[in-house]
Amino acid sequence: MDxxxxxxxxxxxxxxxxxxxxxxxxxxxxxxxxxxxGWKERYYEQKFSENFHGEIDDLRRDIVQKYTEGLCWxxxxxxxxxxxxxxxxxxxMHHLLQT
Length: 99
Fold this sequence. Notes:
The chain has 99 residues and is mainly alpha-helical. The chain is built from four helices and no strands.
């Protein structure tokens, strides 16, 4: 049991060191600066830096499409069983995006 308590205390201390809430020596830097001009661009660049090339509308459209594809797959899985054909998701997406 002593090893377990030691592990717990070390883990707790490590989590506190890495947490911005407890680490006052190194507070988090707000790179997005919500409320200031240009915050949307900074947000998408910060969160999706690999995919962001300055076209927010295209990126948002892609995110919405991928999210909706995931929801369609989950709905199909729960109501119809394992999806054997990815093409059906694209058909569903096409009809959803047209409405």
